[in-house]
């Protein structure tokens, strides 16, 4: 009998483990349910804001792009006519060319300069890293409008510091060709801090033993940068060029504030979005929506082309 009791105890224990009491079964689901409710409560403000201010307007603009609508009266369906009208509009392609110019003119110096600054702060040649990091990042913290107003004062014809240093009176913001370069300087200054932090984070992820091995093999600083650091940072460089291309398509606030207060009348200083706003002011809501979605497709294509070229270069 005793042996029987000893044998049945593990079975009883196993049975109790597999079939816990009803009280235990209730506690776990209720606890998880409370956690789930709290999680949804915390996330719900973002979800509601996203639905109301992002997804909802996106869907509405996509539907509107297939209609002729002046902002009043009845919207008339026109199919793809708005898209065809925009693509056949020579100003659209002219402004797209200006956008590409802005992207290349500020991204080509900005990204290497940010990388070199990150290398310099990370190296042993400069002291006070805790001081230089926030100083370099500071332009990114300043509001876009405030930054544009500062550059407006710097490039002022009468009182600007730039003209005082050059001992001349150049109409930087009144001349379209010169205003473009003032905007490019502003974009470089604002973007420098952000990409400096990105490259600094990328450099910190590199295994120090790789550089140490290169030093042991007798590699110079330039050789370490070229053959060790830059290949390992290629993903960061690609990310920077893609995001900068997207930012160039969305260029508006910096250019608009910088040149509008200086009497600049040429809308091409803020190409694509000024074209969009111009259509809105003329009551072409359908064409404006079509321009927005064409810009979205162009952004996807630019990113896809850059990623595909990056993969092709790595597979060689």
UniProtKB/TrEMBL annotation:
Q: Where is the ABC transmembrane type-1 domain?
A: 96-306
Q: Where in the cell is it found?
A: Cell membrane
Pfam families per UniProt: BPD_transp_1
What biological process terms from GO does the record include?
Answer: transmembrane transport
Name the domain of life: Bacteria
Residue ranges of the TM segments: 36-56, 100-123, 135-155, 181-206, 227-249, 290-310
Annotated membrane topology is: Multi-pass membrane protein
Cellular-component GO terms for this entry: plasma membrane
UniProt entry tagged with the keyword Transmembrane helix: yes
SUPFAM superfamilies the record matches: MetI-like
CDD domains membership:
TM_PBP2
Per UniProt, the keywords (alphabetical) are: Cell membrane, Membrane, Transmembrane, Transmembrane helix, Transport
Annotated signal sequence is none
Protein family according to the UniProt entry: Belongs to the binding-protein-dependent transport system permease family.
Return the protein name: Sugar ABC transporter permease
Species source reads Ktedonosporobacter rubrisoli
């Amino acid at each position: 009998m005793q042996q029987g009791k000893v044998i049945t105890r593990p079975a009883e224990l196993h049975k109790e483990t597999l079939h816990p009491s009803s009280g235990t079964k209730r506690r776990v689901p209720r606890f998880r349910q409370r956690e789930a409710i709290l999680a949804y409560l915390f996330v719900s403000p973002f979800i509601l804001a996203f639905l109301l201010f992002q997804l909802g307007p996106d869907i509405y603009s996509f539907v509107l792009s297939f209609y002729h609508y002046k902002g009043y009266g009845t919207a008339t369906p026109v199919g793809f006519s708005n898209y065809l009208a925009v693509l056949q509009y020579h100003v659209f392609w002219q402004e797209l060319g200006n956008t590409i110019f802005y992207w290349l003119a500020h991204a080509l110096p900005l990204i290497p300069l940010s990388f070199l600054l990150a290398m310099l702060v990370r190296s042993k040649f400069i002291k006070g890293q805790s001081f230089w990091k926030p100083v370099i990042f500071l332009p990114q913290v300043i509001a876009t409008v405030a930054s544009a107003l500062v550059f407006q004062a710097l490039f002022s014809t009468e009182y600007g510091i730039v003209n005082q240093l050059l001992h001349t009176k150049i109409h930087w913001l009144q001349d379209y060709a010169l205003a473009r370069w003032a905007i490019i300087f502003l974009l470089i200054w604002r973007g420098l801090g952000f990409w400096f932090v990105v490259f600094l984070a990328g450099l910190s992820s590199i295994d120090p033993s790789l550089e140490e091995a290169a030093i042991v093999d007798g590699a110079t600083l330039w050789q370490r940068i070229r053959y060790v650091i830059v290949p390992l940072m290629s993903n960061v460089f690609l990310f920077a060029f893609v995001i900068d291309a997207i930012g160039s398509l969305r260029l508006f606030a910096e250019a608009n504030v910088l040149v509008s207060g200086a009497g600049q009348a040429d809308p091409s200083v803020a190409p694509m979005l000024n074209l969009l706003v111009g259509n809105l002011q003329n009551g072409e809501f359908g064409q404006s929506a079509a321009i927005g979605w064409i810009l979205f497709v162009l952004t996807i294509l630019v990113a896809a082309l850059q990623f595909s070229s990056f993969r092709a270069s790595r597979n060689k």
